[in-house]
Amino acid sequence: YEQLGNQTYRKICYCISGFFFRCLPTIITLLISTLTYAESFHSSVERISTNSALPDITIYSLVEDDSGFLWLGTPKGLVRYDGNQFQVYSSNSDNAVTLQSNDSSNIFIDSKQRMWIGTWGEGLYLYDKSMDFIAHFVHDVEDQHSISSHFIQALFEDSDGNIWVGTEGGLSIFDGTKFSILWYKHGLANNSIQDV
Asked: How far is 173 from 46, CA to CA, in rounded Å?
């Protein structure tokens, strides 16, 4: 301070205070707009619970179909949400559509708009767009072209329309008629396929 001199010190303080006061309106505007945006975002989030007809608070998977419906996989059934209300499909529902299993742990909609529902212990179900039952795939130790496990963890469709199914017992590839199976002995790092 003493080396700079009183005049130089005042100039530095004047520059700093001038910069601060020139930037202060911008800083305040940014803070207000950030708080306003955060408030508007928070107020647009709607919490949905079992009080809203959702059958369970646990949601394993979520997918949107080409009509804009959201499909939720829960331990108590498959749920269709249209933005206003829930339609629950389960093995004990009063709907025209009844699922074979309540467990809908993994949902996938393929390029033909068919819905694949993977379960944890009951195999894989296939429904068409109208939710008409098409097929149920289960592991059969006597059939080398059956799905590799009853425990479905992941679903994927490749560019050729083959459905890849990650299971607890390896990777199954469905070509439209039968499954081909890849296991640990075929070069997989593990038989438990978590993602495809």
From this structure: 39
The pLDDT tens digits of the residues spanning 148-163 come to 999 999 999 999 999 9
Contacts of 28 (CB under 8 A, 6+ apart): none
- Cβ distance 154 to 193 under 8 Å? yes
pLDDT at residue 165 greater than cutoff 90: yes
Q: Are the C-beta atoms of 163 and 140 separated by less than 8 Å?
A: no
Question: What per-residue confidence (pLDDT) applies to 1?
Answer: 47
Please name the residues in contact with 48: beta carbons below 8 A apart, sequence gap of 6 or more.
Answer: 54
- d(Cα 102, Cα 90) in Å, to the nearest integer? 5
DSSP 59-71: --EEEE-TTS-EE
Distance CA 128, CA 109 (A): 9
- Give the predicted TM-score (pTM) of the model: 0.70
Write the CB contacts of 76 (distance below 8 Å, at least 6 apart in sequence). 55, 56, 88, 90, 102
How far is C-alpha 100 from the chain's CA centre? 23
| Number of other CB atoms surrounding residue 7 within 10 Å | 7
Contact 106, 74 (CB under 8 A): no
